[in-house]
């Protein structure tokens, strides 16, 4: 009598396991959709506060599931639909790469890439703009040589450092601690930042690869800096 009932119980358990598994996958996909919708709404607001929130989402979310399995097609479609800077979907990129410490401790308020406004106009940021924590100064992220120091008037000084396989640019400086041609080590202070008319200090930071600007967040690890 009892032996005959075992297959029935096994069938029920198998059904419950499959149902739980599919439900968990569905919840993951729904979570990804919600995140994409939130990012889209924040980009439509298009102000420093919303950009800052996007950056916090990017740094703070750490999923334990694999979107490569559960939502690769969803992410691909989302990239085309939203036409957002690559940074906003970087949380879904599971490829590992070498990361360097940030050029300054602070909050990225203006990300890399194109921003499309509601009126159809667009702007392109060739780096990231960072609001530093109080008292912090920009530092070299890697050993290198000071390639150039440019005075851009109201925008301040821009220092370009040439590294082995890429270059970095530090902008909006009011004074410089380094000299052109100087060999510097990672962690060397570059200069001091000026204060903008809104009362904040900003660092404009670029990474240049093969002569073209790329998203600094591919190279810099801001995790835990917020």
TrEMBL record:
InterPro entries from the UniProt entry: Cell_wall_metabolism_enzyme, Dup_hybrid_motif, M23ase_b-sheet_dom
Alphabetical UniProt keywords: Membrane, Transmembrane, Transmembrane helix
Membrane-spanning parts: 25-45
This protein's record includes keyword Kinase: no
A GO molecular-function annotation: metalloendopeptidase activity
Tree of life domain: Bacteria
M23ase beta-sheet core domain: residues covered: 124-216
Protein name: Peptidase family M23
